[in-house]
Amino acid sequence: MLEDLLNGAGRSMLFGVVGVGLMAAGFGLVDLLTPGRLRDLIWVRRNPNAGLLLAANQLGVAGIVFTAILTSYHDFAKGLASTVIFGLIGLLVMALAFFVLDLLTPGRLGEVICADEPHPAARVSAATHFGAALIVCACIA
After folding, report:
1. Which of 19, 29, 92, 137 has the fewest CB atoms within 10 Å, measured from its CB?
2. How far is CA 55 from the centre of its chain?
3. Number of domains forming the structure of the chain
4. What is the pTM of this model?
5. Which range marks the domain in which residue 136 is found?
């Protein structure tokens, strides 16, 4: 019994590390998509647009990781690998959604996200990121 508990705890730690790593990659993705440094935009300038986009991205990545773990294979290695693969696919799909939205709308979306005044486009972009993540979640399940 103790061995099963420790084994499960170890697996949880590994899934947690993978999930946090994917969320860090999501942070990097949003940082690449927006001009300027995301850390400064959110934590120094308190930019609501960038904060909203990053929050939607982080929730989307967490949703993908959650779904991948929940539906993971009985084989731990396959489950961990599928979590990484689907997490990376999710990031790619979210980036694609950002670029498509940028093409469909006037101006540069990254510049709108960096504007200090709240902008409705930030809500649309955040919803697009989260919606893209939900699509990947559905593909996993």
Report:
1. 92
2. 8
3. 1
4. 0.91
5. 2-140
